[in-house]
Amino acid sequence: MFQMLGVFAEFERGMIRERVNAGLARAKAKGTKLGRRPVGPSVEARIRELKAGGMGILKIGRTIGVGTSVVQRVVGR
Questions:
Q1: Range of 51's domain?
Q2: Nearest to 39 by CA among 65, 15, 16
Q3: What are the residue ranges of helices labelled H in 1-77?
């Protein structure tokens, strides 16, 4: 019984993967930009400036009004 459940679960997972890939391909064909929105150069410069001043990632994000992941991505470059 459990083997049958495993087979159906694998089948469903394969179907989900197919639908997701088809949707991504369709969006790409329409010219939709996928991924995160880019941060402007002025925001990047301000983040680097504040980081060089010794401010922490959380405080920089709050000051500029962006998420901490944006700050980490800019600082990590």
A1: 41-76
A2: 65
A3: 2-30, 41-52, 57-64, 68-76
CB atoms within 10 A of CB 31: 6
Instruction: List the one residue out of 64, 68, 58 whose CA is nearest residue 45.
Output: 64
pLDDT in tens, 35-74: 888 899 999 999 999 999 999 999 999 999 999 999 999 9
Its pTM stands at: 0.59
Gap between the Cα atoms of 43 and 40, Å rounded: 5
Instruction: List the structure tokens of 1.
Output: 């019984």
Take residue 73 and report the two structure tokens written for it. Answer: 């991505």
Domain shared by 8 and 28, yes or no: yes
The DSSP element (H or E) to which 1 belongs, if any, is: none
